[in-house]
Design goal:
By secondary structure, this protein is of the alpha/beta class. Helix content is 32%, strand content 20%. It is built from 14 helices and 18 strands. The strands form 4 sheets. It has a 5-stranded mixed beta sheet with strand order 1-2-3-4-5, with helices on both faces. It has a 5-stranded parallel beta sheet with strand order 8-7-6-9-10, sandwiched between helices. Strand 12 and strand 13 form a beta hairpin. The longest helix is centred in the middle third of the chain and has 23 residues. The termini are far apart.
Length: 392
Amino acid sequence: MNNLKIITLHAAVALVLLCSCRGGKATAVIPGGDTVRLRHAERLQIVKYDGYAVASLADPWNEGRTLHTYVLAERRADGKLPPEAEATAEALRHDGRGGAVSVVGVPLRRAVVATSVHCGLLGELGRQDAVAGVCDLRYVNLPWVRRGHAEGRIADCGNGITPTVEKIIALGADAVLVSPFQNSGGYGRLNECGSPIIELADYMETSALGRAEWMKFYGLLFGAEAAADSMFAAVEAAYDSLAAEARRSAVRKEVLVDHLSGAVWYVPGGRSTLGRLIADAGADYAFAADKSSGSLQLTLESVLAKAGGADVWLVRHNGRQAATRAALLAESEGYGQLKAFRQGAVYGCDTEATRYYEEAPFRPDLLLRDLVIIAHPDLKGLGRTRYFTLMK
């Protein structure tokens, strides 16, 4: 690309970036691209150009700001990236709405993945071969990851919050996928590895299908675009069918989620993916009016006051936590005041015995089926639950 073209591109971008944000979604675009139609995701925008795509991630914690923009450049036959990609990135850095801008060569071939959720998705998309390392290996409940580690093909890169930078550098990782957090202060020494950091902000989406739709972004990253499009179409169709089935029910129950972690009860916000999923299951939720897409940090007393009358209590736990009602009561006598506890309507999900965290975020239809079955006993023919079972 010659200097005149680069100058022209910068000028065009400067004009186009005088735009607004709609619903928290970054909407800055460069002329000549084709915007990927996203039906549910509110914090992601993808625009395709010749030889590259631009993915903009809206900042979940700062309305109207951009968290990160990625220029996903297709590697040429000689292994190099198109010069237009870097020119576009440089122009986007003058956006003025904050957020980093990174050029990423795609498809990714050797990535470090910090979450079991995204390992699970890559397995579904058939890109296990691109996972060179994982974080928090002991929490990844996927046989192919454990097998890959045992055979020396997948490295354990340490803690997901503070990965082992030296190991990532030794792997020659072409990207590191991590979850961003509000006021995290950045990624510390991880920036030293020289690999692009992909911020996995899908968990801050405002609907279950919105989060699942981010698989289209990950499909672009890993060269699995067709597989991601096909998978999402199937998930969306199954989800919509189950939501329609729930609307047929004559039963309406209120649902409570999770339990104390120390002195804090982390309750999904009303606009979180789980909060919205409960609504799509045709169930009531005491915190539905809350506007946050993250979690609320509450005391036991405040949960009892707000949701003590819930008909159903869904408890996610792991193999080291309470798996019976008696064990729950030993954890806190206050649980005995919950209507669902007194009436024996407590359903547990052992996240170690199931693949809840590896599947449900990008297969919300599977989790929705569980909720519809539990919340609407009058509906027949939906089969058995996958994750939650009645606690004894």
